[in-house]
Specification:
alpha+beta, 7-stranded mixed sheet, 15 helices, 5-stranded parallel sheet
Length: about 475
């Protein structure tokens, strides 16, 4: 009788946990799964905390309900697998705004991450350079081309569309700038359409038509009780041995698999396994790959990251507009780049005492010096800027929390997908029992990370000889 498989998952974020669940579901019975998490907490950027006696997200807030093809997203599928579907809740207020020219204006509908398919629809926020988006008789992009989002949109629709719409919307997700982010990675549907369509407006319309959304259908969801329940349920369902505060410092190929060096140098532990899912950020992944596949390590290690801080305030009965929140273009000169009115956006969080939870995101790529301020300075600045944007003094907070996420948001330069494909091809050829997973490779967002982890697990199962189920 063959010995059970032993699989190590390095990284206890949602990608690593999704990989562990998929391994438990599809690997042969008896497979031994161990998750190694360097910190003391699972979940990565999913972190549910408490403020003013109420659960609140100090990291990722929600997940997409549908996937790009129109089916349910990988996050929803995982939630169902874990028996948490009855906890899914949707925003009760969906309209958000842009802070421009010292006031709030509703974000125009019908755009694709801020890129309009109808120029008239964005006229209240930006003046498109309509004459530049001419049909030149050929597709906007070649079959294998990738460009920065900002470069394409500026050339076709002008600076205002980028600076006032696209840049703040991308910044809200990636903390990056449109002029540095890959179109193919951050807006894959538009990139596909741009390889066929001759105008940017036409490409937006084609991308929207390819993935229609039923009117009124919810776009986002979260879990009552917090996304921490997803983390806990995934860890339990995986049946994995969870090793917290366990840093994997070295990966060494052996004849039958891999040897992990875990823990401090003076008291290192050596663990032999058959396969490894590497679900950690790019730089620690590159360090582990360096002696194994130096070319792949160099490629992976070249990915840069942005840092952010999330400042959450508990405010007694503030005068807030009926909005889910707002985005702030960098051209406005404010420290905050986005704000969410939690207790307005999510009806299940509203309190009878009128206490409101408001969160602001601080930090843009290349401007990390602003994050060196002490917590009390960030809280005071966020409170002051929120009051200014809303046009009314907000009451003093009764509680506040600053969550710093240093080097946490990948910055996908043009060509990112090709670089990742090259690194993975190198590993498959030389080390098929080592798979990469996570936001560093496949994009941000809970559904993408869940899918990335599950795909890595499937690769491991194939490399070890297929499913026993």
């Amino acid at each position: 009788m063959a010995a059970p498989w032993r699989v190590a998952v390095v990284g206890g974020g949602i990608a690593g946990l999704a990989a562990a669940v998929r391994l438990r579901d599809r690997a042969p019975a008896g497979t031994e799964i161990t998750v190694y998490e360097q910190s003391g907490a699972l979940g990565g950027k999913l972190r549910t905390g408490e403020l003013a006696g109420q659960a609140v997200e100090f990291g990722a807030e929600s997940f997409l309900i549908r996937d790009p093809a129109g089916g349910e997203s990988a996050a929803v599928a995982l939630v169902r697998r874990l028996g948490l579907a009855d906890r899914i809740v949707h925003p009760t207020v969906g309209q958000a705004a842009l802070a421009v020219d010292g006031g709030l204006r509703p974000i125009p509908g019908g755009t694709l991450v801020g890129v309009p398919g109808d120029l008239a629809a964005v006229a209240t926020v930006a003046r498109p350079a309509a004459d530049a988006d001419r049909d030149s008789g050929r597709p906007l992009l070649g079959r294998d081309d990738d460009v920065a989002v900002g470069a394409l949109v500026r050339a076709r629709l002008g600076d205002e569309v980028v600076d006032r719409l696209v840049d703040p919307m991308l910044g809200g997700v990636y903390a990056g700038r449109a002029d540095g982010l890959s179109l193919a990675t951050t807006m894959p549907a538009l990139a596909r359409a741009a390889r066929v369509e001759h105008t940017l407006v036409g490409a937006v319309r084609a991308a929207q038509a390819a993935a229609p959304r039923a009117p009124g259908a919810p776009v986002f969801g979260t879990l009552a009780g917090g996304l921490g329940t997803l983390v806990e349920a995934a860890a339990t369902a995986s049946g994995a041995t969870i090793r917290r505060d366990a840093a994997v410092r070295e990966l060494t190929p052996t004849g039958a698999g891999w040897r992990l060096t875990v823990g401090p140098t003076r008291d290192a532990e050596h663990v032999d396994v058959d396969a490894v899912v590497l679900a950690v950020p790019a730089r620690p992944a590159a360090r582990l790959l360096d002696a194994v596949a130096p070319g792949a390590a160099t490629t992976v290690g070249g990915l840069d990251y942005a840092s952010v801080a999330l400042v959450t305030l508990a405010l007694p009965e503030p005068a807030l507009p009926a909005l889910s929140g707002f985005l702030v273009p960098a051209t406005e000169g404010l420290l905050i780049k986005a704000s969410t009115f939690f207790t307005t956006k999510w009806g299940h969080l509203r309190r009878p005492d009128g206490l409101a939870l408001v969160r602001a995101s601080v930090g843009r790529y290349g401007d990390e010096a602003q994050l060196q301020r002490p917590d009390e300075d960030l809280v005071a600045t966020v409170h002051r800027e929120l009051s200014a944007v809303l046009g009314t003094p907000l009451p003093a907070p009764v509680a506040g929390h600053v969550q710093r996420w240093g080097g946490s948001l990948p910055q996908y330069a043009p060509g990112h997908l090709d670089r990742v494909a090259s690194a993975r091809a190198t590993l498959r050829a030389g080390h098929p029992t080592l798979a990469l997973a996570g936001a560093a490779y496949d994009g941000v967002g809970i559904p993408v990370c869940v899918r990335s982890g599950a795909t890595a697990a499937d690769e491991i199962i194939t490399a070890l000889g297929g499913s026993g189920r």
